[in-house]
Each structure stands twice: as C-alpha cells, then as structure tokens.
Amino acid sequence: MHRSTPLLVLALAACADLSTEPARSSIDDASFARIHEADGSHGGTPMMATLTPGAEVPGPGDPNPDAGGVMVMTLNSGQEEICFKVSFSGLSAPVSNAHIHTGAEGVGGGVLVPLATPAWPAVMEGTVAQCVFAPREVVKAIRKNPADYYVNIHTSLTGEDPEPGRPAGAIRGQMTRTQGSTVNHF
C-alpha cells in the first residue's frame, strides 16, 4: 500500500482538471490546439499508462523507488497522431527520450512511436503535452490490443556520476483503455 500511494497521487494529479496552467516544457500553442482538436472535434480513443521503475524490462529501472509518472493520451487514426499529456517526477537523472514500444507486460520490445519529438527538456520532473505522428495502422493496432504496448521514459547518463542514468528506460507503464481523457484540459 505504501508503494502505490505516490502513484495514486500522480494519477489523480495528471487526470485532474487544474485551475492553473501547468508548465508547458517547450511545447508551443499550436500543439495545444491540436490536442484539443484530437480529443474534441476529431475524436480519438483515450488510453492511459502508469509509469514505474519496477516495470522496466530488462531492469533495473530508475534507482529511486518513488520515481513515476502518468500519461493520458488520445489515439486518432484519422489524423494519424497520438496526443498525450505526461507528468513525471522523482527521476534520478534528466530525461533523454520517451517512446511507445511493442511488448506485453514483462517483455521488452522495439520502439514503435517516438514521443520526444522535438526533444523534451532535460529535467527530472515535469509535464509535457504534445501530439506526435503515428501511422494509421499503428494507431489501429494499439487500439485493438493496448496491453501489447508500453510507454517508457529514458534518462541520460550524467557526466560525473553516470550510475543514476537509465538510457534503456527509467520508468515504464503498459497502455490501457480508459473511459475518458483529460488530454485537452490544461
């Protein structure tokens, strides 16, 4: 129970409709408009992933057991894009990359959709929201079997102490269907 409490708080915070606008971590207004369109007028399938270090395969994930994140996303095959909002914290090294991978729970897999395009800020906590290109067939495949795909955030090796960096993946979460999406509720 002690381990799931920080993740529950993260999940609730990521899904809450906050009255103040979160930091936009190098995302422009055009990206926010496209997120709104994808979730609103263009439709899309809402998904979610709760990211933890213990889910990384092969491990180890981030050395901080309290590292984690929550991603809510909308998959839109008609627009050929995935729009998402991810909040993460507690990382032991700065973010270097993020992806959607193929792979069921407990299985590592190849990169399917790069998420950090353009590159995210090299921070250890924050919120990023944007839309990325994903081919129509990829979006349909994820929608059909979301449990066969996962999201992870990678961290960089740092100059003086490379130990906390996890270039193979720091936190990971399987994709799941969700009833609604707060992707456009900034």
Can you describe this structure?
With 186 residues, the protein is an alpha+beta fold. The chain has one domain: Immunoglobulin-like. It is built from 3 helices and 9 strands; from the N terminus they run ααββββββαβββ. It has a 5-stranded antiparallel β-sheet with strand order 6-3-2-1-9, with helices on both faces. A 4-stranded antiparallel β-sheet has the order 5-4-7-8, with no helix packed on it. It is globular and about 45 Å long. The chain starts with a helix and ends in a 9-residue tail after the last strand.
Keywords:
single chain, 186 residues, Immunoglobulin-like, four-stranded antiparallel β-sheet, disordered N terminus
Topology overview:
Elements lengths: L3 H12 L13 H11 L5 E7 L16 E9 L4 E9 L5 E8 L8 E4 L11 E8 L2 H9 L4 E7 L15 E4 L1 E2 L9
Antiparallel strand pairs: 1-2, 1-9, 2-3, 3-6, 4-5, 4-7, 7-8
The succession of helices and strands, N to C, reads HHEEEEEEHEEE
The amount of helix comes to 10-25%
Terminal Cα span: 30 Å
Q: Give me the Rg, rounded.
A: 15 Å
Task: Give the number of helices.
Answer: 3
- Spans of at least 5 consecutive residues whose pLDDT stays below 50 are 1-42, 181-186
How many beta-strand segments?
A: 9
Beta-strand residue fraction: 25-35%
| Level-2 CATH architecture | Sandwich
Helix and strand content put the structural class at: alpha+beta
CATH fold-level topology: Immunoglobulin-like
What is the topology, as strand order, of the major beta sheet? Answer: 6-3-2-1-9
Rounded mean pLDDT score? 78
Judging from the principal axes of the Cα atoms, what is the shape?
A: globular
As for the number of domains, it is 1
Biggest sheet descriptor: 5 strands, antiparallel
